[in-house]
Specification:
By secondary structure, the protein is α/β, with parallel strands linked by helices. It has two domains: 162 residues, no CATH class; 327 residues, Alkaline Phosphatase, subunit A (3-Layer(aba) Sandwich), CATH 3.40.720. It contains 24 helices and twelve strands. The strands form three sheets. An eight-stranded mixed β-sheet has the order 5-4-6-2-7-8-3-9, with helices on both faces. A two-stranded antiparallel ribbon has the order 1-10. Strands 11-12 form a two-stranded antiparallel ribbon. β11 and β12 form a beta hairpin. α2 crosses α3 and α11 packs parallel to α18. The longest helix has 27 residues. It is a multi-pass membrane protein.
Amino acid sequence: MTLHSCRHLLAHPRWVVLLVIGLWLGYALAMITRLPTWAIPAVTVGWLILARWRRWGAPARPRPLARVWPWSLAPLALWGVYVYLAASFGEVDLGAVFFHLQAGMSEHGGGGRIVSALLHTLAMLLLLASFTWLVRVDHRWRPAEHMLAVVLLAGNPMLYGLGQRGAAVVTDDGAWLDRQYVTPVVLETPPSPPNLLLLYLESLERTYADRERFGNAYAPLAALGEQAVVFEGIRQLDNTGWTMAGMIASQCGTPLMPAGLLHDRQFEPLGKVVPGIDCLGDLLADRGYALTYMGGASTSFAGKGVFYRDHGFDRVLGREELEPQLEEPDYVNSWGLYDDTLYDLTVEEIRRLERQGGPWGLINLSISGHAPNGYPARACRERQGEFDGTDILYSVECSSWLVSRLVERLRDEGLLENTLVVVASDHLTMRVSAWEQLVTTERENTFMLLGEGIEPRRVRVEASTMDVLPTLLEAMGFVIDWHRAGLGVSLLSGEPTLIEEHGLETVNARLRAETALQKRLWEGLAPPQVTTPADSVAGQVIETPEETIAEALEELP
């Protein structure tokens, strides 16, 4: 491009401006709807054709340039935030945003997200500048732009969600979910309580089991499922779609409703996580279980370590504790340990627990399937060949194979006697390379049980991850009150789940509108209200006319 053409472009940037707006329009529609990515150029071309026909940016009767600031700049910027969240995570869950702001985001491994956010911000600034140019140059946009600002504000899902919750406080008692909640109560303990090995597979949803769409990516896990009770139809509720929320839903039987204003120090990380309820760790610790949590990522991220330490776990081992034990200190990723080394250390920990004696429980969280691309371990690359850096199905197969290999290894060593093995996804995956194939049908989480005396079969239900807690307790031989714990129902009992009785959308609507369950979760977190004793308040003394006359007579000589 010559210097003359550059000067001409700067002096007459009409088509550059229209192209920027068109690309943003196509990108936003593709990110917040289920339009395929190839729709972006189609929408852009359609916009440019319309702009040429309407002569936007070059009106037939131009008026002098007006140095005005469009009202729509702030609404457009808010939409930019929403589009970024949709592009990064697929489904936008404002609860996740609020929780991570309060629980702490240090020691995260999403360095790529930071670069993406910076690029997104620069692109958003370019959009705002382009729209400002269009409004200033083309006077026809000025009156319509005021109405556009109102439409953009009213239609933003983030502001709609906040407004809906605020209205609910006024219009509803906000306690329907709280009334459904059943405090977990163990009525009977089996004579020889089994051990528990709970293996969370990051983002490895059961939707990947469809071979027509995803090939053999889930095949190793499907083969493991031939030995297990496999639950189909485990849906994802709002406020359960990220790691901490998924673990709390499955261990506490309730969605993770963020602390919000109940948090007494808004700009400091949470000191406790759901302190108002008992979870799986509390119930097992009260019955003599030695409990360990292990994960390759830092436990300081999103309050993970706080949650496990406060809910009965003796040992909480994350990146900080495990990385010094690595034979190859450099063999780590941006989040922490790869799963092959994490599982090696998991075997060592189970050996230690077995030597210690008594029932034990170990919860493990993988990293291989983490969005957007996954972190396939070296053992997988040796087995599967070169990783292209983006194909999530490669990482799904890696995660499936590694966990299957771990279970077989523990079984061969005799470390799974009298042990219930649970394999579950922590939540549905966020936006990945296979996103367009994933969202074509209803999606479901992985949940399977393996162990002595468990007859392999498939159980088709309409349930959620909240039903995992009571199901685990009954699978371990514990007798629980009404087959229920939290908002969950044991899937081994035949009792209807909350989703079967009321539907996913109804429960989600209640989650967005209610506050009583939130207060239960965070009971004790807010500082106690300081009240002034009644006797410390000076009262007003009112004298009767008779008292006044009597006092005056006493003062006479």
